[in-house]
Design a protein that fits this description.
With 273 residues, this protein is α/β, with parallel strands linked by helices. It has ten helices and six strands, in the order αβαβαβαβαββααααα. The protein folds into two domains: 8-162, 3-Layer(aba) Sandwich (Rossmann fold), CATH 3.40.50.300; 192-259, Conserved Hypothetical Protein Ylqf, Chain: A, domain 2 (Orthogonal Bundle). The protein is 39% helix and 12% strand. The structure holds guanosine-5'-triphosphate and magnesium ion. InterPro entries: G_CP_dom, GTP-bd, GTP-bd_ortho_bundle_sf, GTP-bd_ribosome_bgen, GTPase_MTG1, P-loop_NTPase.
Amino acid sequence: MDIHWYPGHMAKARKLIRESLKLVHVIFELLDARIPRSSRNPDIAALLAGKPRVVILNKTDLADPAETRLWAERLVAEGTPVVQLDSFTGRGFGKIPRAVREAAAPGRTGTIRGMVVGIPNVGKSTFINRLAGQKAAATGARPGVTRGKQWIRVAPGIELLDTPGVLWPRFDDREVALKLAATGALKEEAIDCEAVALWLLDWIRAEYPGVLKRRYQLAALPADSHMLLETIGLKRGLVVAGGRVDRFKAAVALLKEFREGRLGRFTLDKCPV
Ligand SMILES: Nc1nc2c(ncn2[C@@H]2O[C@H](COP(=O)(O)OP(=O)(O)OP(=O)(O)O)[C@@H](O)[C@H]2O)c(=O)[nH]1
Ligand SMILES: [Mg+2]
């Protein structure tokens, strides 16, 4: 799967982040707990070097808890404070104010300004809303919701800048692209849904063989993932005239179920030990 997707608005967003750096005391780098390595933008990480940073592992409710713990330990060992969050329910948010104050110059008395950065759809705006206790920033279950920049007062003395999700211009590693696609960081139009679904089926059956059998009530898994995708399409009634399975729709349905956590909690990036 080849992806060349670096639209103009992303180059603009990168510029916005660079220009806003001097206005903020601390950076919140949001990573997707399902793909802590693949969701780290190497381009932006380099840009942020030298700024106090808090790493947020978000969407922990969708990730394998044991892996999330390992990743948190590893990132802490690399020298950044880490907070594990589920922005949906608010789990983990109690740890934020202290992490912010510690990272952004202990002892500071004035307003602390922070910038929230991360790949598209990782939950930046949801995170800010949850902290603010109100829906101040627009959110949505697709990448590319936030466009401009927006300052939001999340607590007395803490203001956060919401920024648009940013990717990097080239994915040299095909697996990284597939993982970003599977978790929903790439626009549906930019990806080959069928290729992503087939890759995901291969991955799940290798790592958690029982999951697909249970979810789709199959006595045995078909020999290859093409057949498996067809079977899933049949089970979901996604057939076209003549009784053939609509493979595209089957792929979209599978990806949706995966992203909503209906297949279970998975971490696609295994923490190196
Ligand atoms: N399950 C789960 N879903 C989350 C979590 N945080 C955010 N979401 C969902 O992820 C989707 C994207 O959230 P946004 O806050 O719009 O993401 P964003 O990073 O601001 O996205 P862009 O503005 O497009 O870059 C929404 O459907 C959120 O409800 C979380 O911790 N767990
Ligand atoms: Mg947003």
